[in-house]
Amino acid sequence: MNADRLENEVRGALRTWAPGDSGPPPGIADRIVRRRRRRTRLRAAGAALALTGVALGTTLVTGAAGDDAPPAFRVSEESDLLWRTTLPGISWDACTTGPGAVFCRGALHDAVGIDARTGDLQWQRRAVPAGSSSSPAGALPGVRDGILYTYADHSPGAPAPGTDLVALGTDGRQVLWRHELADDSRDRASAVLFDGGILAGGPGARSVTALEPRTGRTLWTHSWDGADCDRAAIGGVPHLMCSPDEGSPARGSTVVRLDPATGAPRTVASVAGPTTWIGTDRDAVLLGAGELAGGAEPTELVRVDLRTGAVARHPVDGLPAGVVADGIVLASGANGRAVAYAAGDGRRLWSRELGLDLRAEPGDPTAREHASAAAVDLRERVAYYLGPNGRLTGLDLDSGAVRWRARVQVSTEPVAGGTAPELMLRDGSLIGLAGGELFRIRPVLH
């Protein structure tokens, strides 16, 4: 399904409300489409790297004539597969780790718990009603103090069920509380753990609520107008990264700090034009501006110092969006390449073909599988990636040189363009989710 068809489907589903329902909040379809469109720009820009990344990758990774080549590594194909587990149900979309366990959710399950040491399924909590299919999640909020935070349908079985943030004991036995979210994004910004609470979307589309982690009691709320805001906890403190609504870019973007105890807002910095949130690098917020955020200007990396409010803008070649690790932004997309940028000034550091054999949907070469986001081992200085077919690769964080390759046998799934497996680092090993297979593998590096 291409972007235009997807947007029309989203609008149609939200505007065709079940008889007797009060109807969706005004403008909710456009707001969800707008958020989805911003994320699609990131993927589209990643695909554009295929046009320039081949030549640049040859220069930056292997070294041009007269240039110093990156450090030579002996590529290891050794690993220890600790366990592999076939998960029950279908369409698993997000996982997170906690003490001694891995937790995942999927279309037919709000959560399952797996023993991180053995891979044994400990418990499962099915979506209600049984057999119903829940909306997918791009990420899970996480685990803290014996509580798993996950997502479930607010009105199971309804044509537009909505989304609840659910606090669940990590033994799977008890739902502690539920909180209805304003939309169905279910991504990394939908619910964010901060020191003393969890920041969730709602009650309205342009508001957030801080909840007490164990009881779900409302601690405070904050609302705004005229902007679309992502949420993050930086140094344990909740922040909003806000970009103006389409049609009113003159308002500019803002980075706002929310007091953890009261929710009182303080504008850290104002940034001209629309932006999109990339991530954080130490005491700085990284934003994308220009074409990356839907503007007409060339793409820029915007760095906001949270201590001083200073704003620095750097022109960039390509896509400075992805996982941020130790001053490096690691981007990857459906073109099968990983590209590293300096988080300080946006310089392209290296580019490398991942070799994960990503497939395209039959009849639509633009709808391709994605590699996982990078799982970075800072001790070994390796960025690991997983493909939907179970292939794994490990690249040197500083040079992009291949240091490790492996393959885990997983079931063959039909091509689903835009989908990506998940990869997490835990105690020097990797936990991966590809299709319905969850596994743990320990790379052996030379």
Automatic annotation (TrEMBL):
Keywords: Membrane, Transmembrane, Transmembrane helix
A Pfam family of this chain: PQQ_2
Keyword match Membrane: yes
Domain Pyrrolo-quinoline quinone repeat: 80-188, 207-408
Keyword Mitochondrion among UniProt keywords: no
Transmembrane residue ranges: 44-66
Name by which UniProt lists this protein: PQQ-binding-like beta-propeller repeat protein
Organism field: Streptomyces genisteinicus
